[in-house]
Write a structure and sequence with these properties.
Length: 97
């Protein structure tokens, strides 16, 4: 393998760095939404999605790439659903005000 292909900055090797960034952005976004709509389904979707991402990161060296990818896809999909619901509810709250 070419030496330049082996260089990968920490940001692209460490799932924990990405989880920290994702978690910070999600908490900011959902926190803003929660203050407006207090919808528990958004929180449950976020917790479930983020949990799948954490489990996938914990198991990345212990399971096959297919299983790891599946966990990431499920977690990401749940996070997208939470963000979409949060966005829709925030949009409805703005119309009411």
């Amino acid at each position: 393998m070419a030496p330049w292909l082996e260089f990968r900055p920490l940001l692209f090797r460490s799932g924990w760095v990405w989880l920290t960034v994702i978690g910070a952005i999600a908490l900011w976004s959902f926190g803003r939404g929660w203050s407006q709509h207090q919808d528990k389904k958004v929180v449950l979707l976020f917790i479930a999605g983020y949990s799948f991402l954490v489990v996938a990161t914990l198991l990345e060296d212990k399971v096959s790439v297919l299983v790891e990818s599946g966990l990431f896809v499920i977690g990401g999909g749940l996070m997208v659903m939470a963000h979409w619901r949060n966005y829709q509810l925030m949009k409805c709250e703005k119309v009411k005000n």
